[in-house]
Design goal:
31 helices, single chain, about 70% helix, about 675 residues
Length: about 675
């Protein structure tokens, strides 16, 4: 009965501790088979439940929050009992009513500017959700009936009910989806009672008109719930048009609140994807209605667009999905995709010209951002394609090739290089997946532009693009790789050799990341069966490349790069290490690769407590094993008579190691560690 909130918060913690301690005792007693003491303990627990419920429903959330652990554990006990007494059933109902009441927002909650208090309530709501999930495990029927009662009563009179009560009624329906688990969201089949109850509630939700409620929390909860129960529309598709209209008008994407518009953009994209073929009758109508939401808003427009560029990405993706998944002919799909992408291409050309002439740096940045958004939007539409619905099958290759031709000139723009290159590079990554070999004619000139005046970060981001092309097209791109190999390497070496300030951590990190990217590139080339690309670069260049790999394996304290270097060396030995390998390579193996396998682990910085280092070490062992496989007894002889004695390794260990080298891998590794 105390009024002092601080005292009650402490008291609540105390009762929680007592309850949880008793429950821990009950669990141990049951485990030990002491049923008499377990029964006494259960009575002691039950005696505290009335107090627990009073504290749980207290208007102060801190007091309530402090007792949730006891409630949760108490429900866990009830779940294990074979049958519940009337009192226990009443307790479950008491907890359920408390949770429903406490989930409700209070008048002071600030939806427009959420601060610390609001964040605390959101966390508290998460705790209550866990309680609701546990209630569902104890008595799913009771939970379903209680939610249905609250939901129906509230939605019958939603126009005259306070927002927080309407929001919590819809929220409870939303929470049931997780509390009553089913596989793949199949809530509307299987258990008839449950399916009927959920179907009735969903029908009420979409036909009651509550989507027009004038409060953002209710609006958002409506859309979240509609998307959560998307399978409902397979059972009752007649409601799809009404829900689509809610998404598209002032209730959703055109709402006065930016927060609602933003969240709705994402949810709309999910809704459309989930309905798939059921969207067919509405495709053109929806595309017309969202057209103005997809406008690129250049900086000089001055008007505030309804959606941010991030939100527009979802709208473009949705448009792409509608077109690609439609049952239209390839010709019709092509027309619709062209209608979608042509305005972007036209705007792009105009904005790029404006950027070339812009003097003011702020204006340059604004224009570059806008150009980047245009590329990003075009890229996002391509997410709709899949292995089944490829760009070719939909007749859309030409449109995307036009986009490529429109966007690539941005690579030669001297202003705002980083922003523009990043956007076009991402688009190229997508097009390699979508257009396959049709993209190849564009790669040489794009690469040439991206290699001009580049910094460590540019190169680091460009190399994955080349890796993607190499791994995907292999010998098809061999001529291009031959031609580009040394220019790329020269650009990399130039950046790596730039002097850096001694304490400049970020420059050192950028160089480390670039070095890793460089080795990853060599690994892709050798691993894709393209080692001739390296071999054809002339003896001097080949030697230089090989020495950088030895250096990476031994000299830099970076286990990730070291591991990659040993993978490269192992692959090169496998490809070139036989009797018919390139002239001089066998010498290189003995003079440099074998020593690298022993010098790297001997470095002070080689830390065997680090997992990445252990992986690097095992690649060292694999490299030695590969050398033995390719060179045979000659390798054993070199290790036994020349190299290992020069390191003063004990003869018996040399003997043991050379024997192990001729055994399966695990033995090699063990003996290698000994050396």
């Amino acid at each position: 009965q105390e009024d002092d909130v601080d005292f009650l918060a402490r008291f609540s913690k105390l009762v929680n501790g007592m309850g949880q301690a008793l429950i821990a005792s009950w669990t141990k007693l049951i485990k030990n088979g002491d049923m008499k003491s377990a029964q006494d303990t259960l009575q002691a627990i039950e005696a505290k439940v009335a107090l627990m419920l009073q504290l749980l429903i207290h208007e102060d959330d801190d007091i309530s929050s402090n007792i949730i652990g006891f409630c949760y554990d108490y429900l866990h006990i009830l779940k294990q009992l074979s049958a519940l007494s009337d009192q226990q059933k009443a307790n479950v109902e008491g907890i359920m009513l408390a949770v429903m009441k406490k989930l409700t927002y209070d008048e002071e909650y600030n939806f427009e500017n959420e601060g610390e208090d609001e964040a605390m309530f959101v966390e508290y709501r998460k705790q209550l959700k866990l309680l609701l999930d546990r209630l569902a495990q104890v008595s799913p029927e009771l939970l379903l009936a209680s939610v249905r009662r609250v939901f129906n009563t509230t939605l019958q009179n939603w126009q005259t009910t306070r927002f927080m009560e309407v929001e919590v009624a819809i929220r409870l329906l939303y929470m049931l989806a997780e509390a009553l688990p089913v596989s793949h969201g199949a809530h509307f089949s299987g258990d008839v009672t449950k399916a009927t109850a959920l179907q009735d509630m969903m029908r009420t939700l979409v036909t009651s008109g509550v989507s027009a409620y004038q409060h953002t929390s209710v609006t958002l909860e409506f859309f979240e719930t509609v998307v959560r129960y998307e399978k409902f529309f397979a059972v009752e598709p007649q409601h799809i048009p009404a829900v689509l209209m809610a998404f598209l008008d002032h209730r959703g994407l055109r709402h006065t609140s930016p927060k609602v518009r933003s969240r709705t953009a994402y949810l709309f994209s999910r809704f459309v994807k989930s309905l798939n073929k059921q969207m067919n009758p509405f495709i053109e109508d929806v595309l017309n209605r969202i057209q103005d939401l997809m406008e690129l808003s250049p900086p000089e427009n001055g008007y505030q667009a309804l959606l941010s560029s991030d939100d527009q990405l979802f709208i473009y993706e949705t448009a792409g999905v509608l077109i690609v998944n439609s049952e239209y002919s390839a010709e019709r799909k092509q027309v619709l995709m062209r209608n979608l992408l042509t305005p972007l291409m036209e705007k792009f050309k105009v904005l790029l010209e404006k950027l070339m002439m812009a003097q003011d740096e702020d204006r340059q940045m604004a224009l570059a951002d806008c150009l980047n958004h245009a590329v990003g939007f075009a890229s996002r539409t391509s997410k709709a394609f899949s292995n089944k619905q490829t760009v070719k099958q939909c007749g859309c290759s030409e449109v995307y090739l036009d986009c490529l031709q429109t966007f690539l000139p941005a690579l030669s723009c001297p202003l705002q290089k980083e922003v523009l290159r990043s956007g076009v590079r991402t688009f190229l990554h997508r097009m390699i997946i979508c257009l396959e070999e049709e993209v190849l004619p564009f790669i040489p000139s794009a690469s040439e532009h991206m290699l001009k005046d580049c910094e460590a970060k540019d190169l680091q981001e460009f190399i994955p693009l080349i890796n993607q092309i190499t791994a995907k097209f292999k010998t098809q791109v061999s001529p291009f790789l031959q031609q580009m190999f040394m220019p790329l390497l020269r650009a990399i070496f130039e950046v790596l050799l730039l002097p850096a300030e001694e304490n400049d951590q970020s420059a050192a990190l950028e160089k480390q990341m670039l070095r890793r990217s460089y080795f990853a590139f060599l690994q892709t080339v050798t691993g894709s069966g393209m080692s001739e690309v390296i071999a054809n670069q002339g003896a001097e260049n080949v030697e230089r490349v090989l020495f950088t790999v030895i250096q990476g394996a031994v000299d830099y304290p970076d286990p990730i790069a070291q591991k990659t270097c040993f993978i490269i060396l192992s692959k090169l030995v496998e490809l070139w290490g036989g009797k018919d390998g390139p002239v001089g390579f066998a010498d290189f193996v003995y003079k440099h690769i074998v020593p690298a396998c022993f010098l790297a682990p001997l470095k002070q910085t080689f830390d065997l407590a680090d997992a990445q280092t252990v992986l690097a070490l095992s690649e060292c062992a694999v490299t030695l094993k590969t050398i033995h496989l390719k060179r045979g007894p000659e390798c054993i002889q070199y290790l036994q008579q020349e190299y290992l004695p020069s390191l003063q390794v004990a003869p018996e260990i040399i003997q043991e190691f050379c024997q192990a080298l001729q055994q399966p891998d695990a033995k090699v590794f063990k003996n290698y560690l000994k050396v």
